[in-house]
DNA sequence: AAGTTGCCCAACCGCCCATAC
DNA sequence: TGTATGGGCGGTTGGGCAACT
């Protein structure tokens, strides 16, 4: 048996929003906000609309800083790369494109970008650009986590982004805001100047992380993510782990995070690191457990492979073809 | 000029999940 | 602990419009 509808469909107005309705909603939001209850909002605001409809209208069109119009080439690449990585997780993809909404991106992908890819008007090389990989969705894999949660961190666990030869080192002390530093490992084919200087700390505090489904995101920009940018209510279990560190030995957070990395992170779960540097202010990385399974960057998908994904993906819960999936254990 | 087709995108639908009770 | 409720999100729909015949 399905659940009861959220409102009486017969009594609410449907279809396109009028300027008057927009104005009412805007005015109400400016004065009161949602009040934490979208269902009750229409009545309070004098709108004959379903609460969900109000929410959608606000989040997708009326809230400040919404960006409409043409997508840039950079945005195209971000969307393609992330789609190849995580599939149709539009809210997550939207979180990486300031001002864009998941609905916007979803529509853009379905109507234009998919075709662009198939027609070959997106340069496949762009999808492989190292700076793109590092900038938007670097895959990191942990290389030196302690073998058990009870083992103190004898050395800093490191997360290596294999595609661009960067080594991200997890700061050892979690009593301070968690941070990562970067250092180029070798002569890279691209410059770091626009991104990170060696040893530059780039990720913000542990207090600023988010969990969504099997993804853990550090940083990010709530104000422009997804439909509403709200991940906070889904972060509780990680936060708890983090906060349950041993305060007595001043390792608060360290044990918690260790526990989380070893226990809290389910198999196949990913960590996503995000910070506000360069370009759109987003630098991401992914890592996951089991450790070490990701030997290569999933961004290294060729145009042909992405095309194949498009043509074969009737279900969105897989990301890669069978062989790739098994090889990389990229389920989530 | 009229009819048809295809595209775009705003809005809706329905399921899932978290939380309150 | 079970149930009800609200929020979030991906998939789908359908109206409006432009392009085409």
UniProtKB/TrEMBL annotation:
Ranges for domain HTH myb-type: 9-62, 63-117
Keyword DNA-binding: yes
GO molecular function, one term: DNA binding
Superkingdom, taxonomy of origin: Eukaryota
Pfam families listed in its UniProt record: Myb_DNA-binding (PF00249)
Main localisation: nucleus
Cross-referenced SUPFAM superfamilies: Homeodomain-like
InterPro entries membership: Homeodomain-like_sf, Myb_dom, SANT/Myb
Myb-like domain segment(s): 9-62, 63-113
Name used for this protein in its record: Transcription factor RAX2
């Amino acid at each position: 048996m399905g659940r009861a509808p959220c409102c009486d469909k017969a009594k609410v107005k449907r279809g396109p929003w009028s300027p008057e309705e927009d104005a009412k909603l805007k005015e109400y939001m400016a004065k009161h906000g949602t009040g934490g209850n979208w269902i009750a909002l229409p009545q309070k605001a004098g709108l004959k609309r379903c609460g969900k409809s109000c929410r959608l209208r606000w989040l997708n069109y009326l809230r400040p800083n919404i960006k409409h119009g043409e997508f840039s080439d950079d945005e195209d690449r971000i969307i393609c790369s992330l789609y190849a990585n995580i599939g149709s997780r539009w809210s997550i993809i939207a979180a990486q494109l300031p001002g864009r909404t998941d609905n916007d991106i979803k529509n853009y992908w379905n109507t234009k970008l998919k075709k662009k890819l198939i027609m070959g008007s997106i340069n496949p090389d762009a999808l492989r650009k190292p700076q793109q990989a590092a900038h938007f969705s670097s895959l990191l894999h942990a290389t030196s986590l302690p073998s058990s949660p009870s083992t103190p961190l004898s050395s800093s666990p490191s997360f290596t982004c294999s595609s661009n030869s960067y080594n991200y080192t997890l700061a050892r002390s979690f009593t301070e805001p968690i941070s990562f530093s970067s250092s180029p490992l070798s002569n890279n084919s691209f410059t770091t100047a626009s991104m990170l200087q060696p040893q530059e700390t780039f990720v913000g505090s542990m207090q600023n992380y988010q969990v969504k489904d099997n993804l853990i995101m550090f940083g990010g920009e709530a104000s422009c993510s997804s439909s509403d940018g709200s991940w906070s209510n889904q972060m509780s279990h990680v936060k708890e782990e983090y906060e349950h560190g041993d305060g007595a030995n001043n390792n608060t957070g360290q044990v918690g995070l260790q526990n989380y990395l070893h226990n809290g992170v389910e198999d196949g779960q990913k960590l996503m690191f995000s910070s506000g540097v360069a370009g759109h202010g987003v630098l991401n990385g992914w890592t996951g457990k089991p450790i070490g399974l990701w030997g290569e960057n999933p961004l290294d998908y060729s145009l042909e492979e992405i095309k194949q994904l498009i043509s074969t993906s009737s279900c969105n819960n897989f990301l890669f073809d069978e062989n790739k999936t098994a090889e990389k254990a990229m389920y989530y």
